[in-house]
Design brief:
This protein is an alpha+beta fold and 61 residues long. It has 2 helices and 3 strands, in the order H-E-H-E-E.
């Protein structure tokens, strides 16, 4: 997700969806938590769908 925030990545107001959240790969969930924490100032909203996906919406600016 770090590269998503830089360069021509996720535009302001954009949404990124990530897979395998909260599933059998705890390192994936841990990494997502770390990245969301590191970029908290840039994130408008985070929502898991309860089915192994999590969505992150970037602030509009």
């Amino acid at each position: 997700m770090t590269s998503t925030w830089r360069g021509p990545g996720l535009p302001p107001g954009g949404i990124v969806g990530l897979d395998e959240y909260g599933r059998d790969l705890p390192h994936v969930t841990d990494t997502i938590h770390r990245l969301v924490s590191e970029h908290a100032g840039e994130i408008h909203y985070v929502w898991p769908d309860g089915n192994g996906h999590i969505f992150v919406k970037r602030k509009r600016r």
